Amino acid sequence: MNAQTVAERFADARRGSGSNIMSTGDRVYSYEMLIAKRTPKGAVQVISVKQSPTRTTSRHINCVLGAVPDAIVVDTLEHD
To answer: What is the CA 56 to chain-centroid distance, rounded?
Structure first.
């Protein structure tokens, strides 16, 4: 599935994967980099595009931001 579909599945708290992007339902990874996660209170945090190492990861981040318009953009994401 394409990156936008994976991002939309994440927005619905569902799993999905495509070429170099994966949603576990509560996290999104671009390659192996955590780019978004759902907090225990249900808010979505997305890493800033400024932190992206590649154009593809930037595109993945933008897909998540498009699918979750009320996401909170952060400079770092904690792996908990």
So the answer is: 12
